[in-house]
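Format notes (please read before filing issues)

Several people have asked whether sequences and structure tokens are stored in separate files. They are not. Every record keeps both together, in the order shown below: the sequence lines, then the token lines. Line labels are part of the format and must not be stripped during preprocessing.
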Amino acid sequence: MAKPTVSGRFGSLGSGALTGAALAVQTGLAAVVGIVLAREFGRGAETDGFFAAYGVFIVIVLAAGAIRVTVLPTFARARASGCLGGEAVSFVLALAVIALPVLILGTVLRGPVATLLTGGGPVAQATAAMVLPWMLLAATCQLFAGLAASVLAAMNDYASPAVGFALGSVLGLAYILWRVNADGVSAFSIGMTVNGVVALGVPAVAIAIRAARDGSPRSALRPRGGSAFARLSMLGFGVALPFALQALYVMLLPFASRDGEGEVTSLAYAYLVSSAVVAVCASSLGLVTAVPLARSGLGPGRAVRHIVASSWLALVAIGVAAAVFGVAGGNVVGSLLGPDYNDRVGRDLGLLVVALTPWMVVAVTSAVTFPLLFVAGAIRKLPLTALAVVIVQVPLAWTSIVLFGVTGLALALAASTGLAVLAMLAMLEAVRATVVGVGVAAIKVAVVALVAFIPVSLVLSSVPAAVVGTIAYAVIVAVLRPPQLVDSWHYMRGLG
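Then the structure lines:
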């Protein structure tokens, strides 16, 4: 008898918790890397250049996550028909056709790319050009690591990729701490490459071991029929919108640089905090529920319930995170990132996280909606949607930076991402019910956060207010036990 899998024992909620735990480890260690970078190099042109190149890395890594979601239903069906190995090899070859030229061209043309990303400042440009090749190599490894993780997910193995991603983060951080004094900022990009190599190597070895244990013949690895173009088209449909959504953030960087030196760095840290919350709370559930939904099918009614249930669980975490940064963001940022982030800079960065809360809400909805498009086969309009939101972002960003400064860029990001979410929901014929369900959840969470944090912030200093407010928030949620939240919990536990 086959051993029970994580999915089999705990359902999608257990698998999501495992994947979320791995993402939490990655996120926590990435936060440590950010703290080391801030304390070693402060806030200025050099860190602006680093984060400009890092924006490219984030775009490609998000594409890796999108590819992981895109191929999951295909791999699940391929496993059921006994041809998973050939299907996986076909996608590896198709992805290499795009990924390797991007790596080579990005390395050769790193100077012009760095100029475009930084706006031409000499120190920022030189830093970006120095770290960009390593970041591209790290991102390429993450692309193929995501593909390997999807192969294992089709086998109900979420543990091996989780170990690979977590171990890669640990070893990458170890390299950075070892070499930062000797190599400077370049140690961070090389450490990211170490991370990527390990994240790819562990699931690749796990796949090889499973193939050997199951006695799979070499013929099972022969690429399946169908053209590479067809698979690239499928990946293109899958990557187009997530790529565009991440590009929306990268497009904000030149606008932020016009608001003063260091603003790109502040926006980058606020975005990293916000996207980490989204990744840990929502993206993990989106990944692990794609396989069971592909097997059982999906209709508009179930799509609505799935999106709202997943969003409820994530929004509870977003509410407390935003409230903590609103009450004590300056103290938290200053104590973690060092003296360059004390006082006004730290307070502004904390408020920037709060300003990104609307984006977190729509990003959570996007993260749990996107995989459903591939389960339902509703992907034809994704490239057009991607193009539309990128075009809209330019006037939105320009208007927002003029009217509200860097804070306005956070609102522009929420607006453009929200348009993409509405388009995705329209493809699933689930706009009205989902918007109402998620909107009600967001309002209820916001009310609980305000009730828990505002009174204590009026009588206590920032850090004690954040601690007491968090406790009060948890107590209120536990006592009220919103029926929709309880229903969401049971739904996710039962999905397997």
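For reference, the curators noted about this record: Residues 35 and 337 are 5 Å apart (CA to CA). The chain has one domain: 7-494.
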